Amino acid sequence: MAANLLSVINVAAYYRQQVGTSIKTIKAVDGVDLYLYEKEILGIVGESGSGKSTLANVILMNIKKPLEFVKGSVRIYTGNGFLDLNSMSVEELRTKVWGKEIALIPQSAMNALMPTLKIKRIILDVIRSHQDRINEKEVVEKAAKRFRELGLPEKAIDMYPFELSGGMRQRAVIAVATLLNPRILIADEPSSALDVVSQRMVLKTFYDLLRKNIIKSVIFISHDIATVRQIATDMCVMYAGKIVERGSTDELIRKPLHPYTEGLIGSIPSVEPGIRERKLKYIPGQPPDLSNPPTGCRFHPRCPYTMKLCKVKEPPMVNVGNKRLVACWLHVKR
Amino acid sequence: MISRAFIRYVLTKLSFLVVTYLVSITIVFLLPRLIPGNPLAQLLTQLFQQAQTNPETIKEVYKTLMAQFNLNKPLWEQYLDFLARAIQGDLGTSIAYYPRKVIDLIMPAIPWTLALLVPATLTAWFLGNNLGAIAGYKRNSLFEKLVLTTSLVISQIPYYWLAMVLLYVFSVKFGIFPSGGGYSYGLVPSLSLTFIVDFLWHYTLPFLSIVLVSIGGWAIGMRLLVIYELESDYMVFSESLGIKESKLFNYAFRNSLLPQITGLALSLGGALGGQLITETVFNYPGTGYVLFRGLSTLDYPMIQGVFIIIVATLFLANFLVDLIYALIDPRIRLGYVQT
Amino acid sequence: MKLVIYLLITNKRFIIGISIFLLIVLIGLIGPLLYPVDPLSFAGPMEVAPCRRYPLGTDTYGRDLLAQTLVGTRTSLYIGFLTALVAISIGTIIGTLAGTKGGIIDEILMSITNVVLAIPGILLAILIASYIKVRSVEVIALLLGITSWPWYARAIRAQLMSLREREFVYLSKMAGYRDIELAFKDLLPNIATYTFMAFVLYINGGILSEAGLSIIGVGPTKGISLGLILQWASLMEAVRRGLWWWFIPPGAIITVVTSSLMIVSVAMDEIFNPKLRGR
């Protein structure tokens, strides 16, 4: 049984915006449970606006206004014990957690490196912020070695970010983010802005990091289920601020339980025989307004199998065996 | 290290400067000839009236003026003459101080102006940027609100009015500082300690009037830049890697400084204008004072001369600043083209 | 639109700034009517300090300074407003032409703009003003407007160009909207807020520049403005002779007006630019 790395329990985070006379509350993440184990690549899939990027920030506890952390707990398991991130101050998070235990690769990571600094400088600054005294030469050598391991040219370290191509920049960002060997790597849409070849290389980089045990697990966030399924071992489906289904990738694709998952998978053109037989579906309607989500199950307005109960009460997350979790009244035994 | 793009940048800036300078000279040339009412003729009339008092000098002045303005030659010849002379440094002969040449009257004043302009602008730039950066970093703090409000108000105080107030308070009322001039009567400019101390004593109030007002402008701008910087992708990423706060501030500061350097070049023009007027309040022997004397006597060669020289100095300063910027920003130095 | 007005009204800075400004405008407009003393005629003893009879004292010619300051405020505001009008008009025309037509027209206009921008406006204004024998208030405003339009023209052009590129314009074009419809529906609202802010800044510039021109001797040759009062004060060595009531009020009013408008401009910047809202 692989060790537990991350426990996110009943976490909620809302955006509060002042619009006109009232304050609008957008419930971006509303009661999410998430568990991450070692040697897992967990894909979090959802439409735009489902709250997945917010979830990434919440896991990191990088909460900035207008986002507010409302409730829940985020716990990570380190080499010697655990840390409750929701009760740590920003200073503590900076020194003990960010970059060291968890690293986040943001969306449009190509702009994530300071254009006016050589990559070497950024590397040195990251290391310096976590260790008191460093030997510059050693650090640069180690970084060069790491770059080589990940298939990046060593001389990239001595260059400015704009001198690298888009794909290489993305991988350089990944290399910089994982310098301190964080146990958890969260990647937010890491390959969406890249061409197919660069995408492959980015995915390969993740594999390499895992194989060489530089990081223990990856959380891969994307709206593109086709890419996620290529790399993820397990998948989580997110809708309207909640997780609606979780399971191993194979099982989820073969036999989706939640109607939304079914719709997502059905909407991918695929050449695989089992899937091709199902007709190409699409999900009618639009994602809900998170400041005023639907009552009961949030998916009910678009669900082809809605029942009366769905409009009234929210379905609980149930375990249907073999680490398969789903939140749908269809699968709750009466 | 020096790429082709860098050279291209430098050449572009240089050629722009030359063109603008030529345009300025052309404007100076055309103005007296274009303005309705023919100021030139009026000038000559004025001179004739003065001629009643001193016919000899006036005849000379008239001859010089005619030679300079070449009113008998076709326009384009006049223009080329003018251009040729301007490039050689001959800006004509002053009328009020005939027969002294304009350039000889202006040149001694320039070091005084620069001595005031450069340190004052740099001090204000330095202090203002720091205040603004801290204000931008510490948003919604008392410090930020204080800095912003104070800067907003004092940046709008006219330099010369602040000069008057300072003069009144510190010189007339409290007698701490002298009431004007660049140095005490009877002293001769030299590098002796007595002179330098005396100079600094006279220098303080003009310096303060310029610095105090300018700080506000820089602080406001820097605050804005830092606020934008802090939201950029790379700042967010760097923070999520756990980089220390002081380092983050350092990043934001550095990146915001680049546009401020460009701003320095742009602001020199305005600062100079304001300073010239401030100099007149203090009777400070700089170019502003020369301009003032020229304006009160409508000594056109003098006025034009000041204009041309100031414009030339300004352009040179701008070019230097642009050069420094090109050397500092790696994107220009290495020929970065935005993809 | 209603949202914008609401945001403006609830912003503390905006309210404070605009109130102060409107107060001064009121003083300038009504003041001379309520205090109908002729600012230019002999009113009493010379160089008297403020007292009940002469609230702001008198100058060297025995003229009532309160009367002068009131009329001066009105004139300076007028000049500021006119300058803004001229500068915005020229800037909008040139900027719009350059931004929407592009190509060679853009290149020519931008070259002109850049050159004028590089030459220090106030120096150019001083130079030109020195050649004009009779300078009315309107002429001064025209002059100041002509020498200060470039930065606004450039900004307008930049905004138009960036808006042109944005997707919603392409989509509108594809949906068949004609150019003019495009301009009004999509582009104008974005430009409008910027123009308004620039207008405010130009009023400031106009008032300050006019004062500068006046002090150095090339201000309006008719009428009274705050700058002219300062000029008379400095010609009569008011500072060195301690006649504080002569030069302090005009400069103070200039400062109050310009800083209140600055506060308004910063407030508007915060409102129209969501990134700056101090959450």
CA radius of gyration of chain B is 24 Å
The fold-level CATH name of chain C is: MetI-like fold
Q: Which structural class do the helices and strands of chain B define?
A: mainly alpha
Summing up helix and strand content along with how strands pair, one would put the structural category of chain C as mainly alpha
What would CATH call the architecture of chain C?
Orthogonal Bundle
Helical coverage of chain C, percent range: over 70%
What is the helix tally of chain B? 14
**Principal-axes shape call of chain B:** globular
Shape of chain C: globular
Gap between N and C termini of chain B: 21 Å
Largest interface: pair, residues per side: B-C, 64 and 47 residues
Total count of helical runs of at least 4 residues of chain C: 11
The poorly predicted ranges of chain B are none
DSSP helix fraction of chain B: over 70%
Task: Itemize the secondary structure elements and their pairings.
The complex is a heterotrimer of chains A (334), B (339) and C (279).
Chain A: E1 4-19, E2 22-37, E3 41-45, H1 52-60, E4 67-78, E5 81-84, H2 90-97, E6 102-105, H3 119-130, H4 136-149, H5 166-177, E7 184-188, H6 196-211, E8 217-222, H7 225-231, E9 234-239, E10 242-248, H8 249-254, H9 259-266, H10 273-276, H11 308-312, E11 318-319, E12 325-326
Chain B: H1 4-34, H2 39-51, H3 55-69, H4 75-88, H5 102-106, H6 109-137, H7 142-154, H8 159-173, H9 193-230, H10 233-240, H11 245-282, H12 287-296, H13 300-328, H14 330-333
Chain C: H1 2-10, H2 12-34, H3 65-101, H4 103-118, H5 121-131, H6 137-148, H7 150-165, H8 167-174, H9 179-216, H10 226-235, H11 244-272
